Amino acid sequence: MEILYFGVLIFAALAGGKLAEKMGLSNVVGQLLAGIIVGPAMLNWVPSLHIIHVIGEYGVLLLMLNAGLETDVKQLKQNMKAATYAAVLGVVLPLVTFPILALMFGIQLQTAIFWGIVFAATSVSITIAVLNEQGKLASTAGSVILGAAVLDDVMALLLVAGYAMFIGGSGLGPDSVMPLVAFGLGLLVRRWSGSSHFLELSNSIGKWTLFPIFFGSIGLMVSFDNFWNEAVLLVILTIVAVATKYYGAGWGAQLAGIGKTDSRAIGAGMISRGEMALVIAQIGLSTKIINHMEFSSFVIVIILSTIIAPIILRPLLEQVTD
């Protein structure tokens, strides 16, 4: 029976991803929504089984390994100053704002800090697609976004590791540090001449099995219990998630000497949360730092930010310099 559940989840996630792409959305959004639809929150075709989440964890590790394999350290040298400023301010602003917001809602300090870490992470997979679509990937804005995204991912992982030290190891165990290890391993393997073939193979394996299981399993954990009671919080979280990245990364780029128009595009390009934020949120749930209600809210906000980002970015890219 478990094999059947896996089959349904993978099929639904892959189909959802394809449908999302046709609608101009991120593949990840489609897979997440598919998990929500077939999971306990809606159709209840696939229960939230422990084995599904265990296999999904391997998807996380492969995802982070591939992130390391795809990270071009040389890319950081191009527009390094602007990328650094955009990444740092784009991380600092949500890292400060979300804990304050959480404390206002009565969340304990330890958990409030984790809120900031979750929303400090950025995913630019959808941004890269939009940049490619409009031929702006090699533009100044495109280059800064790519460089900032690399730094952003590294900082997000370091924040998780630092948080583990902050709480004295009581919440995050060795399993929680494994994504960081996988990312580092990817960076090392990238130096090998055959790394491109290895990346192609691991991407193929992940694309058809582990990735849809991971993203689909995230959807299985979403609950709409007390959804309407949390509607105001969801709206606030989404607005803050969009604003902190847009203004944080945008201001950072401007401080580095990038023009206002390009800086706005850079800010918009950093709005989307995705894989990294989901990985961090998953760590928080599995280690009981956040509860299921918070986790569900985070997933919904991550989905909304991924949908909103290209809507803001597309018109701004038409104005940027090449």
From TrEMBL:
This is Na H antiporter. It is a multi-pass membrane protein. Belongs to the monovalent cation:proton antiporter 2 (CPA2) transporter (TC 2.A.37) family. The keyword Transport applies. Gene3D superfamilies: 1.20.1530.20. One of its GO terms (molecular function) is antiporter activity. Residues 10-186 form the Cation/H+ exchanger transmembrane domain. It comes from Weissella viridescens. Keywords: Antiport, Ion transport, Membrane, Sodium, Sodium transport, Transmembrane, Transmembrane helix, Transport. One of its GO terms (biological process) is sodium ion transport. The chain crosses the membrane at residues 44-65, 85-107, 113-132, 144-164, 205-224, 230-248, 295-313. GO terms for cellular component: membrane. Its main location: membrane.
